[in-house]
Amino acid sequence: MKILDVDQIRQLDQYTILNEPIAPIQLMERASQAFTNWFTARFDSKTAVKVFCGLGNNGGDGLAIARLLIQAEYNVDVFVVRYAPRESDDFAHNHRRLKLLTAPVYIENPGDIPTLRHSDVVIDAILGSGISRPAEGIVRSVIEAINRAPATVVSVDIASGLHANSATEPGEITICPDYTITFEMPKLAMLLPGNAKSVGEWHVVDIGLHQRFIDQSPTPYYYTTRDEARLLLRRRERFSNKGTFGHALLLVGSYGKVGAGVLAARACLRSGVGLLTVQVPRCGYGILQTAVPEVICRPDVHERLLTGPSEVEGPALADYAAVGIGPGIGKAPETARFLREVLTNCRKPAVVDADALNLLAAQRDLMGLLPENSILTPHPKEFERLTQRWQNDYDKLEILRDFAQRKQVIVVLKGAHTAIALPNGDVHFNSTGNPGMSTGGTGDVLTGVLTALLAQGYDPVEAAVLGVFAHGHAGDLAAEQRGETGLIASDVTDSLRWSW
Ligand SMILES: NC(=O)C1=CN([C@@H]2O[C@H](COP(=O)(O)OP(=O)(O)OC[C@H]3O[C@@H](n4cnc5c(N)ncnc54)[C@H](O)[C@@H]3O)[C@@H](O)[C@H]2O)[C@@H](O)CC1
Ligand SMILES: [K+]
């Protein structure tokens, strides 16, 4: 799914109005009805609803929603924050209609702000995507009062005060909602970690904006939906054998961190690889053979480190279908030399994770050796070591896109809504996963997943988008069974389903 910016969404509204065609007020009605459908499914009609409206179209939505809720026999109070003399046409239209049902209360001074109770549900329709300056004066006072109150808060389209696709500067205030119900598509702001408090749990409701305009609109930003991820999945053919699905090589582990290798290996096997060889330091031999009997183990000649040579013969590096390197390997100079050798000789996209990334950061010339379309899987701290500090999430996105383009690699920046930057500068945000996955070893699992997909011949971009989705989906299934707190990395592997 594409993520468009505010200007594009405004044009999309206009395009829909002209080409569907539909009257602007009807489009507002459709949006308000979509919001109301979500709301009535979540909160029963005994709920004390307080709708706070601004004077633009977001406020117009608020007035229409208030009317629809009154008609559905909810107990609704409406407040209009009168911060300016002018109101939008569609606001004015809905104002006239609402006044036939109830009298809105006008807020012009802080003394007009009502006291909100724990049992109240606030609908925030003060400012929407049309925000063009920081919230000040009475708007700020109302936002502060709502944020201080113990009530549940649901924002219409976007939290008042939050910018949809640019940074909220220090000192700016936003509503901190429990829920955001946004129209048609997520806004970029909702996918960025720094905005978590200004977004809450968000849901998209469809308001039928024109698909042709969406298809024609250029954007570097995408959100991976379940259907899109499903389309990437390949069926396993009936007449296949293990050779069909590739022979992968994982280069993992060091003394004390052989477990990372076990996690990556198990996840690789659970992701459909045909055959898997795992090279670990000699100390990992017994551990790996016992924990994962399905793999071919290639013990390194070094007892504690990954250094390259092994007494066991195996295919040349370039003959493996895919190579994954990094989990648990440590940062010893011998291992750095081996990483150099691997990157020089593997000649196809590799998966590079964890300490392999830290080694790249320490010896920047190694980056020049990365095979094109390799998949790097840093968490934010590792990515910062590879690049530079950033000012805010938007700055980070630019650094991310620039890095992927300059190095011609795929960067999977891990976190909530993992951002996958592609060599063409596009960024795909993931839609699966949960905070239970913030636990040691889930990154090693992802390395195994991605290596397996590359070995099966998935294009690296598809492998990255699909693998990250499947990994998050498995995490969600695991969290359903165990709850988020008790979730460990092995649960993610055990929950890999490859269907959704
Ligand atoms: N255009 C359309 O056809 C649709 C618009 N919709 C709603 O319309 C919203 C966008 O509406 P608008 O563009 O009218 O804008 P908003 O309702 O977000 O903002 C209202 C107006 O306030 C002014 N303003 C900007 N920043 C301010 C600030 N900090 N303090 C005080 N005033 C400020 C601006 O002049 C702006 O036009 C969306 O978020 C959505 O809720 C939906 O009804 C769907 C259809
Ligand atoms: K709002």
Automatic annotation (TrEMBL):
Q: Which GO terms describe its biological process?
A: metabolite repair; nicotinamide nucleotide metabolic process
Subunit structure and binding partners: Homotetramer.
Please share the entry's free-text remark on the cofactor. Binds 1 potassium ion per subunit.
Obligatory cofactor(s): K(+); Mg(2+)
Q: Which GO terms describe its molecular function?
A: ADP-dependent NAD(P)H-hydrate dehydratase activity; ATP binding; metal ion binding; NAD(P)HX epimerase activity
User: What's the gene?
Assistant: nnrD
What PROSITE patterns does the annotation carry? YJEF_C_2, YJEF_C_3, YJEF_N
Report the residue ranges that make up the YjeF C-terminal domain in this protein: 225-500
Entry binding sites for AMP: K414, G415, A416, H417, T418, G443
Which species is the source of this protein? Fibrella rubiginis
NCBIfam families linked to this entry: yjeF_cterm, yjeF_nterm
Limits of the YjeF N-terminal domain: 9-215
Name the EC number(s). 4.2.1.136, 5.1.99.6
Q: Which PANTHER family match?
A: ATP-DEPENDENT (S)-NAD(P)H-HYDRATE DEHYDRATASE, ATP-DEPENDENT (S)-NAD(P)H-HYDRATE DEHYDRATASE FAMILY MEMBER
The name on file for this protein is: Bifunctional NAD(P)H-hydrate repair enzyme
